[in-house]
Specification:
seven-stranded parallel sheet, binds nicotinamide-adenine-dinucleotide, binds uridine-5'-diphosphate-4-deoxy-4-fluoro-alpha-D-galactose, alpha/beta, two-stranded parallel sheet
Length: 329
């Protein structure tokens, strides 16, 4: 039996492909390569170039292979773009989930692990954030992820489909040897943008606001390594295989780091001064987002390997230094 990794050519999906293979799983990938890279998927993995909104593509994959479970990473995931083009997000994210759940029903696939996001919470009521806290997304991206979670809940009540929804906080880092990593052609994430400075691609990093009510005035986030995220997916799948019930789990380190602390860690790792410019606040940025991940640790037995920011950033640096232009496809 194989697992189908939808969006397996993307940043987080490609690390999952490798981690699932490391655990002895047979992996099949479907990806439309809109933001993913064919070169991020090993040649010995069966790869379907296609869109999950096309039910015929999914039926073909489910018919041609013996598939036990779906790991679902496909999404548009730019918060700012989602505010400007909300329907693009509901089309790809929500319609993608409908199409996938319909195909799973048609083909009797009963397990799905889903990439959700801290964006489902919106402005948090308290820190650290628990899975049971209020969900009030402040942008269409977060709303689409919350709708997708709710769709899985209602479908699982009615049909024999069990799900685990993993709400990631800030994912960062790369495969340890730097052979695969983050390559978003339109990059918004802090760690790759900081590392563009020592790469000579930008003169400085702009800090979006230093007047937040935090220790150094810059925003606090919960950064978690992409391979630790991937290990959580393997644990979540085995949890469902062992009869675990459908559920939602936060994935974060539980520790908050400020933007300035991340820049200082990158200075240490890269040996570069990394000049800083203080800019305006980015609209919609909460001051602090930190996960309470006890539930994943207790129930899934998740235990992240990368605990310091230097550890996380040094893997990202290994990737960017060896692939300054990213993937070449
Ligand atoms: P990514 O853009 O690198 O990966 C998404 C992949 O899905 C890409 O390879 C893309 O080509 C593919 N895809 C998108 N729509 C598709 C469709 N309709 N059919 C087939 N393939 C399609 O993004 P990522 O950073 O790897 O994020 C993966 C998932 O994790 C997303 O669902 C995102 O919302 C979620 N997430 C990411 C973060 C983060 O910090 N990067 C945080 C929280 C949640
Ligand atoms: N930041 C800067 N300068 C930059 C880029 C980012 O100061 O050039 C700051 C941001 O203001 C924020 C922090 O660095 O305080 C992290 O920003 P990212 O864009 O890397 O990540 P976000 O916290 O905005 O986004 C993350 C996930 C999203 C998810 C969101 C939930 O990447 O998928 O959390 O709020 F939707």
């Amino acid at each position: 039996m194989a697992v189908l990794i939808c969006g397996g050519a993307g940043y987080i999906g490609s690390h999952n492909v490798r981690v699932f293979m490391k655990h002895g799983e047979e992996v099949i990938v479907v990806d439309n390569l809109v933001t993913g890279h064919r070169a991020s998927v090993p040649d010995n993995v069966k790869f379907y170039e296609g869109d999950i909104r096309n039910g015929e593509v999914l039926d073909k994959i489910f018919t041609e292979n013996k598939i036990d479970a779906v790991i679902h990473f496909c999404a548009c995931s730019l918060v700012g773009e989602s505010v400007e083009k909300p329907l693009k997000y509901f089309d790809n994210n929500v319609w993608g989930m409908i199409s996938l759940l319909e195909a799973m029903q048609r083909n009797n696939i009963d397990k799905i692990i889903f990439s959700s996001s801290a964006a489902t919470y919106g402005e948090p009521d308290r820190i650290p954030i628990l899975e049971s806290d209020n969900t009030n997304p402040t942008n269409p991206y977060g709303e689409s992820k919350l709708i997708m979670e709710k769709m899985m809940k209602w479908v699982s009540n009615q049909h024999k489909i069990n799900y685990v929804s993993l709400r990631y906080f800030n994912v960062a880092g790369a495969w340890k040897d730097g052979s695969i990593g983050e390559d978003h052609r339109y990059e918004t994430h802090l760690v790759p943008l900081i590392l563009q400075v020592p790469l000579g691609k930008r003169p400085h990093i702009t800090v979006y606001g230093d007047d937040y009510p935090t220790k150094d005035g810059t925003c606090i986030r919960d950064y978690v390594h992409v391979c630790d995220i991937a290990e959580a997916h393997v644990l979540a799948l085995n949890y469902l295989r062992n009869g675990g019930k459908s559920d939602i789990f936060n994935l974060g380190s539980g520790d908050g780091y400020s933007v300035m602390e991340m820049i200082n860690a990158a200075r240490k790792v890269s040996g570069h001064a990394i000049p800083v410019e203080i800019g305006a606040r980015r609209p919609g940025d909460p001051a602090r987002l930190v996960a309470d991940s006890h539930k994943a640790r207790e129930i899934l037995k998740w235990s992240p390997e990368y605990v310091t920011m230097e550890d996380i950033i040094s893997t990202a640096w290994a990737w960017h230094k060896s692939h300054p232009q990213g993937y070449t496809d």
